[in-house]
Amino acid sequence: MPYYFLYFCCFAAALGVVFYIDRKNEETEDILTGQGILAVLIALSIFIGYLLLVCLLGWSLVKIPTLWWTESNNETTLKKLLFKIALFEEQIVEQQNKVNTLVKIAKKVSVKEDIELYKEAMLSEINRFSEDMQKYDFSIRENSFLDSDVKLSEQYLGNKKIDYKSLTTLNLKVKDQNTKLRRLFSFKQETMKRAIFIEDIISN
C-alpha cells in the first residue's frame, strides 16, 4: 500500500509541475485539456518505462524477481544448494593444499639472524590460525609435495637465507591464502545451514 501511495504522489507532483509550466507561459496553448492530458500521460508512461528499464538492467535489479521465481520451488532450491556445497568441497581441498604448501615453506625457510623475530611472529600467527580453524575440523598438514598453483621464486625453496622484504612477501601470501580458506569454510557452512532449513521445510 505505501508504494502505491508513493507512486500516486509522484504522479500528482509531475502533473503539478506540468500545470505550473503551462500556466506560467501564457503564450502557449493549454496542454491540460483534451488531447493535452492524453499526450502528458503517454509521455509519462514512456518515461517510467525507460526508468524501470535502466534501473532493472543497469543495476541488475532484474535478478531479484528472477531469484524469487527460481527459489519459490524448495526442491529446486535444495538441489542448487547441494550443488554449491559440492563445489565448495572441491575448492576447499584445492585451497587446503595451497595453505599446507605455504605453511611448509614458511616453517623451513631460512632467514637472516636479525629478522628471526619476524619469522617467529609469522609462525605464531599461523598457529593461531590453525587453532581457530579447528572448529571446521581442519588441521594444517605439511604436504610431502608442493602445490604447483602456489607461485614462489626459487629463493624460498633453497637453503639461501632470505631478507626482510622476501619474508614479508611470504607472510602476505600466507595470510591471503589463509583468508581464502577461512572464507570458503564459512560459505560452505552457511550454505549447509540453508540447505538443512529448506530440507526441513520439504520434509514437513
SSE layout and pairings?
Blueprint: H1 2-24, H2 35-58, H3 63-70, H4 74-108, H5 116-132, H6 164-203
Structure in words:
The protein is an all-alpha fold. It folds into two domains: 67 residues; 132 residues, no CATH class. Helix 5 runs parallel beside helix 6. The protein is elongated.
Strand content: under 5%
Envelope shape: elongated
Structural category: mainly alpha
Got a strand count?
0
Question: What Rg, in angstroms, do the CA atoms define?
Answer: 31 Å
Brief characterization of the structure:
The chain has two domains: 2-68; 72-203, no CATH class. The longest helix has 40 residues, at 164-203.
Give short descriptive properties of this protein:
single chain; 72% helix; mainly alpha
